[in-house]
What does this fold into?
Amino acid sequence: MAPARVDKEKQQRILVVDDNQAMRKMIESMLTTLGYFNIVSAVNGEAAWQKVVEDNNIDIILSDLIMPTLDGLGFLCRLRESKEYYDIPFIMITGADQRADFINTVQSEVDFYLLKPVTPMVLEDALHQVYLQQHAANPYLNAVHSGKHNMIHENYTEALEYFVLAQSLEPSFAKPYYFLGKISIHLGKESDAEHYLKKCLEIEEKYINAIIELADLYTRRHDFNNMLLYLEKAIEVSPGNFRSFVNLGTAYYNLNHHSEAKTYLLKAAKLARSSKENVQVVIDAMIEATLLDEADYLYGTRLQDDDDDTVKFWNHLGLKAKALGWFDKAKYFYMAALKIRPQNKTINFNMALLLVEQKEYDAALAYISKALRLHPDFKAGCELQKAIKQLLNR
It folds into this structure.
C-alpha cells in the first residue's frame, strides 16, 4: 500500500512560480531529483493565474513571494477568493528577512512556507506534509475544508455549522474562531462576529486577519476609536501589511487628519512595489483622500503606459478637482490630457463646462466648438454650445 501512496503523491501536477529564472530552474531540478516530473512554471503571479485557469489541473503551487506584475501574496489572495481554485495547496517561498511579516500576513491562507535557501530535504518534507493534510482522515481538517468550501460558495449557514464543529474538535485553535467571525459578518450578525474575532485574538493575539476584520467591522459602525486601535495594531503586528496602511490612511482622512492620511498612503505606495493591482488601490485611496498630485505622480511612475488610459485617468482627476472647487488644478489635468488627445470630445466638453463655471464663455465656446467640428452628432455638446451662446448674447 505504501508504494502506491508514494506514486500517487509524486504524480501531483506542480506549478512553480518565480521571476528569477535561475531560482525557478533550481526548484524544478530539485523536484525532478525527488521524483516529481509533472511540473509547469510561470514567471510571476499574473502568468501563474493564467496557467491555473488554462490548465485547470494544478495540484499544488510553489511560489516566490516578491515578484513583479503580481506578487506571491496577490496571487494567493486571488486563488483564495475564487470559487474554482480556492483550495489548491499553496507553498510560499520567502527570504528569512521577510519571515515574520509574511507569516502574520497570510497565516490563514497559506498551507506551508519555505525559507531560502531551499534544500531538497526541506522541499520534500513540505510537499509531503501538504499532501498528508489534503488526504489524511483528520476530522478537524475535514471540517475546516468543508467550512471553506461552503463559505466560498456563499452557503454561509452550512459553513457556520462546519466551523462550529471544527471549534469543538480543537477549541484551542484560533482559526475556527476567525472563520466563525468572518461568516457571522456575512450573515449580518456583527455582535457574534465581534465575539468570535476577539476570541480568536485571545488565543493568538497576532492573528492579523482577525485584527483586520475587527477594524473593518468598527469602520462600518463608525466606531472610530476602535477602528484606529485595530488598524494601528495591524501595522504593529505586520509592518509590511499593505492593506492596513491603505485602510489607516483612508480612516485618518475620514477623521479629517489629512497629514496622517498622506503619511500612511505614501507608505502604502512603497509597500505596493511593482504590483499593479496594489498600486491602483493606493491611487484610488489617494484620490478619495484628495491627494491628487500624489495620485498623479504614482500613476506616472508605476502605471502609465497607454495613452488612452492616461487620458481617462487625467479626466478622472480633473473631475475630482473640479468637484472640490480646485479649478486651476482641474484645468491643469484637462490640459495634460488634451496634449495627448487634442480632439477628445469628452475632455473638450469637460474643459468647456469648467470654463463656463469660471465665466470664461469665449474660451468655453472655443473648446466645445472644436469637439463638435469632429463630432457633430455629440448631443450633449450641441446643448452646451447653445447654452454658452445664450450666455454670450445676454
Observations:
- The longest strand covers residues 60-64.
- The chain has four domains: 2-135, 137-205, 233-305, 307-394.
